[in-house]
Amino acid sequence: MAMGENHPAEPSSETMTVIIADDHEIVRDGVALILDAEPDIEVVAEVGDIESAKRRTAGLKPTVLVLDLSLGDESSIPAIPEILKRAPETRIVALTMHDDPSFAREALNMGASGFVIKDAAGRELVDAIRQVVDGGSYVHPALGARLASVQDGPPGGLTSRETEVLGLIALGYTNPEIAERLVLSVRTIETHRASIQRKLGATSRSELVRFAIENGLAAKP
Predict the structure, then answer these.
(1) Residue 107 has pLDDT above 50, yes or no
(2) Backbone angles phi, psi at 212, to 5 degrees
């Protein structure tokens, strides 16, 4: 397997081509090792940031893009529609450390075809790739059950977790404090907050607070 962004081997016409987008080189190398072991899968590029993922996917138009949902300090989810617009035949499998159903729901709503948890990656990722290429979708089984049990209802299209985060934001908690209260990482809270702002069209904390108050989300937890 060639290292770096490009893999020089030319795949056959029957080979499924894959781009791996993850900001950790050790993860990229591990995923590439697993996929390159499959006779009909060829990793054609590895990238570490969202702009490179957009550019390389648009240029190479792989069969599948394996996309980490947190590249650097930003969520990759908002980029999914643009990626698919430029490479409409490419299927996206989200690979993430987050096991919160809200991430899976948003990624799938944005156009991803599969959702695999990094802790379970390996054979499962190969299965997910094959399933989405065959025209299906794939969600990590345990997460899929939780996703199916989530009922619609929170205002603004927010998930239950996002309403929790928004309520704590409205009460004046900082991201680290929210992370501690909800037993999540600060990075996960930042991703939730970005998703909340995007869904509500809010650009300032005051707008978030106003929405939370108007919808009864700012009560003491």
Answers:
(1) yes
(2) -60, -45
